[in-house]
Design goal:
Layout: E1 2-5, E2 8-11, E3 16-22, H1 29-43, E4 47-51, H2 52-59, H3 62-65, H4 68-82, H5 103-107, H6 124-146, E5 151-155, H7 161-171, E6 177-185, H8 189-199, H9 210-227, H10 233-236, E7 241-246, E8 251-255, H11 260-269, E9 279-283, H12 288-292, H13 303-340, H14 351-357, H15 361-373, E10 380-384, H16 388-393, E11 403-406, H17 423-429, H18 431-439, H19 454-470, E12 474-479, H20 481-491, E13 502-503, E14 508-515, E15 518-527, E16 532-536, H21 538-541, E17 543-544, H22 562-565
Parallel strand pairs: 3-5, 3-6, 4-5, 6-7, 9-12, 10-11, 10-12
Antiparallel strand pairs: 1-2, 7-8, 9-14, 13-17, 14-15, 15-16
């Protein structure tokens, strides 16, 4: 049974959960962790990530594990380099390199915060520090759970049996705390090579030449591979719960999953993919009730709403083709980047990648012409609610190109007895309800049979979110204000306490593009006199309007802003 309480979601057992990540570097653990945290937080669980790498960079710096002589030598080499008396290391562009051909040996003496030598399983001093930092972060995690947290994620490689057994042993003394391992395994060389490129921009390599950073990270990876042991019989003998995600969800192995929270984690992780796509979110065109300032209902579009619907179909047509060209260009750039290191890193550039790297801008033009000539463009869907104003907004999309689906879960939040009323009428007829909503918009439930709260909407949209994570193509959601707020809160990791106060006017299109380190947001605004859209600053578009004061039951209630009921005057 799921119990929704103020500020959290509780299961009937009140158990807490520790999710311990496992896997080699560049296998997508951070990608999984961030998505999982965002999803669980959106559902209402108090969730927090505890990253061991961040602590290592702070608590395990070179000064803390070098001998005094090593530290003095490093500082002296830096001073000589600053004075121009010593050339940078040929392998990593930092002073003091040995100049041989071993990238790991070169970087071990430079100013990289933690070179590949630090991760050598034979480096006893460094190994001790790594284990100590991992356990310290685990203690922080447990203290946070004891203070009221619900789900804590230990974000680290945890790639040895010894490390995992130490964490299992430590948790035995904790009551009502369950443990679950999530291992990310990736055998796709293209994905691994792309992830390695991203790793060269991590805090470990600030100010380091990208080629040297990549060489050092590959040496680090080889050190990890020497000690890595996948989850298996050793953990099964201890009756632990675990889930293996292989090649970003192509294969999922779940073992001994028993708890409610654990099942939520596995269910979500089974629906991931890395396909390039965009999730477009917009409200319907202006309805007759919008123009009158009335909430809810099932009114048809106004004349302005019809104009918006036609313009929206034209805009999405353009964006569909533009995005296809953008993906092609991105793939070409990645292929060129991977092939540029092929001579120094064998196996990173396949024949297909090499051919892609030498393609020209004419390919993008041919791609666009091909798409334009096709009568059927599979893989782009338009989802609407079951209410007339959204279905009418989608009427101008070519059914030969777009698959239109009407989904009841996308219906606007149901206002119960307040359906079809203005906010002035609600304040006059239900003053206590009006004030209660002002105090807590997220958990406030409209009075009457079927009345809903934002918390109810989150649960209603859970299946929609999972489906959006599962699909491998772009989709446009034509929906309502409360739905758009809830969806954007998920994709942009906006706290649920802020969700009901997001200003999302009519006439805006929000485009969320999944990327390795989060969702990239772009926003377009409809300009009626141009009958077209213009792109605007995304950060400025996602505004939170905080209530200044709570009006008394006898004072005149504030009217909704024009942006809530009609197109903004700024358009």
């Amino acid at each position: 049974m799921l119990i929704v309480g103020h500020g959290e979601v509780r299961t009937d057992s009140d158990h807490k959960l520790v999710v311990v990540m496992v896997g080699l570097p560049a296998r997508g653990k951070s990608y999984i962790v961030k998505k999982l945290k965002r999803y669980l937080s959106w559902l209402g669980f108090q969730t927090k990530i505890f990253n061991v790498g961040d602590r290592r960079r702070l608590a395990g710096s070179a000064d803390e594990y070098e001998t005094a002589a090593e530290a003095r030598g490093r500082l002296q080499r830096r001073e000589r380099a600053d004075d121009g008396r010593e050339a940078p290391c040929s392998g990593c562009s930092s002073p003091g390199g040995s100049g041989d051909n071993d990238a790991a040996a070169q970087c071990a003496q430079c100013d990289t915060r933690h070179s590949s030598a630090f991760f050598d399983p034979d480096n006893k001093k460094a190994k001790q520090i790594r284990e100590q930092v991992a356990l310290e972060v685990f203690e922080d995690l447990l203290r946070w759970l004891q203070a009221g947290g619900q789900i804590a994620i230990h974000d680290a490689t945890n790639s040895t049996i010894e490390r995992r057994q130490a964490l299992i042993s430590r948790l035995k003394s904790e009551t009502d705390v369950n443990l679950m391992f999530v291992e990310s395994i990736c055998n796709d060389r293209d994905i691994i090579n792309r992830n390695i490129k991203l790793k060269t921009h991590s805090p470990d390599y600030v100010g380091i030449d990208p080629d040297a950073a990549e060489a050092d990270f590959r040496a680090r990876l080889r050190n990890y591979e020497r000690a890595y042991r996948t989850i298996g019989a050793a953990e099964e003998r201890l009756d632990v719960q675990y889930c293996k995600i292989i090649d970003v969800g192509k294969k999922v192995i779940a073992y001994n999953i028993q708890g409610f929270l654990e099942s939520q984690v596995v269910f979500y992780l089974m629906n991931m993919n890395l396909e390039p796509r965009v999730i477009y979110i917009t409200r319907h065109g202006e309805s007759e009730d919008n123009a009158a300032g009335r909430i809810g209902g099932d009114a048809s579009l106004s004349a302005g709403g019809e104009q918006y619907a036609r313009a929206l179909a034209r805009f999405i047509d353009r964006r569909r083709l533009d995005f296809a060209v953008e993906v092609e260009e991105y793939n070409r750039q990645v292929a060129q980047s991977l092939c540029s290191t092929a001579s120094s890193t064998p196996g990173t550039c396949s024949e297909a990648e090499s051919a892609g790297a030498h393609s020209t801008a004419a390919d993008a033009l041919r791609l666009e012409q091909s798409l334009l000539s096709r009568r059927v463009q599979p893989g782009f869907e338009v989802w609407t609610s079951m209410l007339k104003r959204t279905m009418e907004t989608a009427e101008y999309f070519d059914p030969h190109i777009y698959r239109v689906k009407n989904i009841k879960s996308l219906n606007e939040i149901y206002a119960g007895k307040c359906e079809g009323m203005t906010y002035q009428e609600i304040a006059r007829d239900f003053p206590e309800e009006f004030e209660a909503r002002q105090l807590d918009k997220f958990y406030y439930r409209y009075p009457g049979i079927g009345g809903e709260s934002y918390a109810d909407v989150v649960l209603r949209l859970q299946q929609v979110i999972v489906e959006l994570e599962r699909i491998r193509h772009s989709v446009l959601l034509v929906t309502h204000r409360a739905m758009a707020r809830t969806l954007l809160a998920y994709f942009m990791d906006i706290p649920t306490t802020h969700m009901p106060d997001m200003e999302l006017p009519l006439g805006y299109v929000y485009a969320c593009e999944p990327r390795p380190f989060g969702n990239h947001l772009r926003v377009w605004r409809y300009v009626p006199h141009l009958d077209d859209f213009e792109e605007i600053d995304a950060a400025a578009a996602l505004r939170i309007r905080y209530p200044q004061t709570l009006p008394s039951s006898t004072s005149a209630p504030p009217l909704p802003s024009p942006a809530e009921t009609a197109y903004s005057a700024r358009n």
